[in-house]
Specification:
The protein has 219 residues and is of the alpha+beta class. The chain has one domain. It has 6 helices and 7 strands, in the order αβαβαβααββββα. The chain has helices at residues 9-16, 47-54, 69-73, 102-113, 122-131, 196-216, and strands at residues 40-42, 61-68, 86-91, 142-150, 153-160, 171-180, 183-192.
Length: 219
């Protein structure tokens, strides 16, 4: 299941550069709560799911993995399937000592965006990618959009190619940097690209999931 290769892509990026000013230290830890959704099941503790998602995990701590209901039914043989419509929640243990405020969230997000390719017209770019039969591997993920989902969540919508030998396989990655009780947490949602409508679907699904997650973990 090669798609986990880019699970921590932007997370790793966020650690390569320092922000202008390090935040204050946190004096307390936080317990991350995982919401229940009708359309997705939290499945990280299943041994097959854990093995697949930890295989390429180097620096991060995986907190939760959400598979859609159909994928969850086949999780015993997850390695045999190419699946989509899933989400992963992670953090970096060394970042948990920092006290996160909105200003710092903005700085981290700006650092992440430096490693993405900008496009002036997302619709035209998607049309070009879906119609081109001679695609090459992107030099970097392609940035489609970035915005504040709410005051505690900064969202980046991008396109990535999970398979080095299959450039025509393109995935929408919606990546969220979240302030959870002054602790930095990352929530990423993945859906296969299938025209511009799939980008809007990914944004809707992500908003539902990440908003419920953030609200559940507010003090």
């Amino acid at each position: 299941m090669k798609k986990t290769l880019f699970l921590i892509l932007i997370i790793i990026i966020s650690c390569k550069e320092k922000t202008k000013e390090l935040p204050d230290l946190n004096s307390e830890s936080v317990e991350i709560l995982l919401p229940k959704y009708d359309e997705w099941k939290e499945s990280y503790n299943h041994p097959v799911v854990k093995e697949q998602f930890e295989e390429h995990n180097i620096n991060s701590k995986i907190i939760g993995v959400y598979l859609n209901n159909e994928t969850d039914k086949i999780k015993d043989s997850l390695a045999d399937y190419d699946f989509e419509d899933y989400a992963v929640i992670i953090n970096l243990e060394k970042e948990q000592k920092w006290k996160i405020e909105k200003k710092y969230l903005e700085e981290v997000s700006e650092l992440q965006k430096r490693y993405l390719i900008n496009t002036d017209s997302p619709k035209d770019k998607i049309a070009e990618l879906t119609q081109n039969e001679n695609l090459e591997i992107f030099e970097k993920p392609i940035l489609l959009e970035d915005y504040w989902t709410n005051d505690n969540i900064f969202t980046i919508v991008s396109l990535v190619q999970p398979y080095a030998d299959e450039p025509e396989s393109i995935v929408i990655m919606v990546f969220n940097t979240i302030n959870v009780q002054n602790h930095l947490t990352y929530f990423s949602y993945y859906l296969d690209l299938n025209g511009f409508a799939s980008v809007e679907k990914a944004k809707r699904n992500n908003k539902k999931m990440v908003t419920e997650f953030e609200h559940l973990n507010r003090k």
